[in-house]
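Researcher: Please translate sequence to structure tokens.
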Amino acid sequence: MAVLALLCASLPLAAQNPGSAAAPRVRRPGGGAGLDYEAYDPATLARGKATFTAKCGFCHGSNARGGESGPDLLRSELVRDDDDGNLIGQVVRNGRPAGGMPKFEISETDLADIVAFLHEGVRAEAERGTYKVLNIVTGDPKAGEAYFNGAGKCSTCHSVTGDLRGIGAKYDPVALQGKLLMPAGGRTGQRRANAPVTVTVTLPSGKSFEGIMERIDDFNVALTDANGDYHSFSRNGAIPKVVLHDPLKQHYDMLSKYTDAEIHNLTAYLVTLK
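Model: Translation complete:
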């Protein structure tokens, strides 16, 4: 996302990516991501999406529109004002401890790919009025059913005659695929309402507190218990003991494992559940 100022402040990020030339500029209608949009090749965007999903998707969502606890990056002024990673990279390299975001060690190549993915997202957001959603039901429903009951292990938690009954009639295919990838919704408020992360904090004395997690980082953890009381604790290594309970952990873990074919096959199968 950004060039390290102390090492190579004068070089554009794209120039540091071995084997890649600077992406051509496409004149934009206005707003964000430098003076112009850059036209990135599909391979770069695919790598950027995969890397972003694996490293950042849990907090910011797989499409960067907000997730577990991170904001919508496509609406971020920092992302929109970024030029070749000069702003984004500072945040990635240094983190934002006050906001609960750790710093990341990441290669220049991966950083450049993530920048491309985010800039392309800003471009698509700005031009969303001209975007037409085509038919996304292109997968094989039989293969999707096999994945649901087999390798995907979806049936260990979900039932087509229970919680998923009639889901194909309840949502259109685009919304249904969104539910598949981000079941709690893309906003922090939706996540809290639909499937909140809970936490158990056990003090050295043995006394424990449990409730909805409000905040956690290397130095503090906070929760709201069943009575509505707010509790905050300082952390020093493994003291106090902190155990998170995330009902959607398996879904978020799968974001970095799904193939495009598996996503489309699952969507095609879920659409048939009328």
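Researcher: Any highlights?
Model: The two ends are 44 Å apart (CA to CA).
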